[in-house]
Amino acid sequence: MSSSFSVATRLLRSCPTTLRTSQYRLAASTSGRLSTRFYSATADQSPPADDVKPPPPAEEGGASELETKLKQKDADLADLTNRLKYAQADFVNLQKIAAREKEQTSLYAISNFARDLIGTVDVLGLALKSVPAEALSGSSSSDAAKHLKNLHEGVTMTQRELLKTLGKYGVTPFDPTGETFDPNHHEALYEAPIPGKEPGTVIDCQKVGYKIKERTLRAAQVGVAR
Questions:
Q1: What is the pLDDT along the chain (226 residues), one digit of tens a residue?
Q2: Is the CB of residue 194 less than 8 Å from the CB of residue 203?
Q3: Half-sphere exposure (CA, 13 Å, Cβ side) for 161?
Q4: Cα–Cα distance between 124 and 92 in angstroms, integer?
Q5: Are 217 and 171 in contact (CB under 8 A)?
Q6: Spatial contact of 220 and 189, defined as CB atoms under 8 Å apart
Q7: Which residues 6+ apart lie within 8 Å of 217 measured at CB?
Q8: CB burial string 148-186: b at 16+ within 10 A, e below
Q9: Which among 83, 89, 103, 181 would be 20 to 30 A from 65, CA to CA?
Q10: Helices and strands in the chain: count of H runs, count of E runs
Q11: DSSP designation for 48
Q12: Which H/E stretch holds residue 154?
């Protein structure tokens, strides 16, 4: 009986060691199975090497759109530059035209006044022509003859001063007798056949013409040979 007790005592003492060894073996076995399952699951989730696709290349749509926008901006810039050049050219031309018009206005500002004034010169000329040359050259000593001479001299001086004043502003008379008829400067009142005169030659000047600078202020009224 004592031997049976001793065997039982040894079994009880060896139980904790046996339990710990069994626990270690169970843990190792479980860990191995879990690791194997985890690895298998991970391997199963990975795609085959043949099914792995390379990353898609960078999209060219964005670069193409940017290039298109840059080209459009360059075209807009070129268009604006051309418009600016045309505007500058127009402005320069406008300045030149304005300067020329200002000069023309300054030169011909008195055209209307001069045109009216030469009418007065014409009247004075007609008054001088109305006096017979015999009345001026006669030896009469009467008061009427003296007054007529004085009046004629006064009218002559007035006409001369008016022409001198007009000349200061570039207004000058011209008589085209003997010249070729020019419709830009002459006004034909009649035509007549004149032997020895070429057709189109001015043979008579009924009323002298006037120019202001290089512009005809009033055409000369003439007779023309035909």
A1: 444 445 445 544 544 444 444 444 544 555 455 444 444 444 445 555 455 555 555 555 668 888 888 889 888 999 999 999 999 999 999 999 999 888 877 777 888 888 889 999 999 999 998 888 877 776 666 777 888 888 989 999 999 999 999 999 889 999 999 999 999 999 999 999 988 889 999 999 999 999 998 889 999 999 999 8
A2: yes
A3: 6
A4: 48
A5: yes
A6: no
A7: 111, 114, 115, 118, 171, 209, 210, 211
A8: bbeebeebeeebeebbeebeebbbebeebeebebeeebb
A9: 83
A10: 5, 6
A11: P
A12: helix 143-168
The interaxial angle of helices 143-168 and 111-129, nearest 10 deg, is: 160
What is the strand order of the sheet 202-207 is part of? Answer: 186-192, 220-225, 202-207
Encoding tokens for residue 29? 């076995």
